[in-house]
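Researcher: We're teaching a course module on how sequence relates to structure. For the next exercise, students receive a sequence and then see the predicted structure as tokens, so they can try to spot secondary structure elements on their own. Here is the exercise chain.
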Amino acid sequence: MTDLAALHAATQELAQAMAAFRLENDRRLAEIETKGRLDPLTQDKVERLNTEVGRLNETVQAIETTLARPGAARAPRPAMPRRPLMPRPSPPSCARASITNCRAWSARP
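Model: And here is the predicted structure for the students to work with:
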């Protein structure tokens, strides 16, 4: 798996874990408001989800650090095909052009 694909997969997994954490944390807060106390199972689940979110966040940051290195995210470029040299146009006829143009043309490399 390429680094970009790994970053995409880790980011998707982090988003899913964050959604699950938010949902469970909202349930935890609602439970505290209604019952006035917290169920230890709910608290344990929230802590596990929090740990998972932290682990996934570290994974995403590690991949981003790897990709931030010079040349890490770039695929090797294929060699550019050489264009054939264009033939140099023929000089203007001095009979048809001014003498200044003929001198300028002959001075060109």
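Model: If you want an answer key for the exercise: The mean pLDDT is 79. The CA atoms of residues 22 and 56 lie 15 Å apart.
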